[in-house]
Amino acid sequence: MSYYFAIIGTQDNPLFEYEFGTSKQGGDGQPRFAEQARHLNQFVLHSSLDIVEEVQWTNGQLYLKVIDKFFTNYISCFMTAGNVKFLLLHQPTATAGGGGGGAAAASTRNSTSVGANPTSPQTEEAIKNFFNEVYENYVKAIMSPFYKVNMEIRSPVFRQRVTAAGRKYL
Amino acid sequence: MAHLGPGKAASSKEQTGLRYPSNGKTIYHRPLNRTKTAELSQSSFAYLFSEMVSYAQRRVTGIQELEKRLNLQGHPIGLKLLDLLLTREPPRSQTRPLTIIALLHFIKINLWTHLFGRQADRLEKSSNPDTPDEYMIIDNEPLVNAYISVPREMSQLNCAAFVAGIIEGVCDGAMFPARVTAHSVGGKEEGEMWPGKTVFLVKFQPEVLEREALIGKG
User: Which portions of the chain have biased composition (kind: Polar residues) (chain A) (predicted)?
Assistant: First the structure.
């Protein structure tokens, strides 16, 4: 399972992006995207913004769940109050057993495997927790008096926090 | 570089540019919630605000321009408060305002309670059929004007334009672009109950009403 996470500003401008892999089932947290797919991910993610604009006015929740699908890429969305979008592209691995040499660990707790089924309630819940934690840190980031709306988030501390949230829930 | 570096390499590269505070605590280490009783001193606010007004007054030629500057000072605060106040809501009621009424309620209740420790006094819709895009938030005695006496020759001025800017920031952030202005409506005669009564006139852009009509149908 590999993830591509991006924060998109109100002018559809990217503010932050981060690629990571699953840490569950013995995953090592490294993304396993094919080299060509990494460019494609950005297109896939941004193309789902049209759908976000439709969904955002029918549902007042912050977490909009999976809103778009492109072959095996699923896009989950979280809208902040200030109309900044958190988008997470998740791509379940084709082969069972997750990443690398974690097969032994996977067999012991594979029942609630996050990501094997991208639309299962467990996956939705895990992504929701991830988004909520990122949102908390995002609000802290914008509380800075030097931060103006739609500025790129460059803080290494923010990146660490997102990494930690990804490791914890996904 | 044609491709993105993996996350790890990027973060170690960026590490060099940032100066940490001496105690190692950044804004990310501080909690977002605060205790209910954590109020600020009104006199220090009044002092700060009087400085803000005189700062805005420098190099302006007219009252409109002064109000515009005060408005601009408030705008970013509104943008940020929108997100902050929503995260402080309990998870069940954490919803983005989708309609004008929901947004104005959020302003009247959450925003006002956070800023001034009480709700706004009234919410009204313009009764004039020509201006269905105008709404009014009424405050009988705005806190920001508590220690301000406006000189006679500037009687048009209402320093609550700052608060109007905050409201405008909240509306803009929530994708309800609007113009917000503050107007004094308190009577000047003796025995007037609320001489400092202020109306915040919220005038939404036409596209907001258009969308509102579409959502109502759907």
Answer: 107-122
**Type of residue found at B103:** L
Instruction: Strands of chain A (E only): list them.
Output: 2-8, 14-21, 63-70, 73-79, 85-91
DSSP states along B77-131: HHHHHHHHHHHHS-GGG-B---SHHHHHHIIIIIIHHHHHSS--SEEEE---TT-
Mutation pick from A22, A23, A86, A143 vs chain B, by most beta carbons of B within 10 Å, is A143
- pLDDT tier at A119, thresholds 50, 70, 90: confident
- This complex has an ipTM of 0.82
A contacts of B3 (beta carbons < 8 Å):
35, 38-39
User: Using the beta-carbon criterion (under 8 Å), do A157 and B30 form an inter-chain contact?
Assistant: no
Mutate which of A83, A88, A131, A134 to test chain B, going by most B C-beta atoms within 10 A? A83
Question: In chain B, which residues have their Cβ closer than 8 Å to the Cβ of A135?
Answer: 87
Asked whether the beta carbons of residue A154 and residue B87 sit closer than 8 angstroms, the reply is no
Is B96 an interface residue toward A (CB < 8 Å)? yes
List CB contacts of A72: < 8 A, sequence separation 6 or more: A91, A92, A94
Considering only CA atoms, which of B144, B143, B171, B140 is closest in space to residue B77?
A: B171
pTM of the model: 0.85
Q: Does B18 touch chain A (CB under 8 A)?
A: yes
Q: What domains can be seen in chain B, in order of their start residue?
A: 42-217 (3.30.1380.20)
CA of A33 vs chain B CAs: smallest distance (Å): 11
What does the domain layout of chain A look like in residue ranges? 2-169
Tell me, what's the pLDDT at B35? 65
Nearest CA in chain B to A159: B11
pLDDT tens string B156-213: 899 999 999 999 999 999 999 999 999 998 776 667 788 889 999 999 999 999 999 9
Q: Can you list the residues of chain B whose pLDDT is less than 50? A: 1-15
Answer whether CATH 3.30.450.70 is correct for domain A2-169: yes
DSSP string, A93-141: -SSTT-STT-HHHHHHT-TT-TTTSTTSHHHHHHHHHHHHHHHHHHHHH
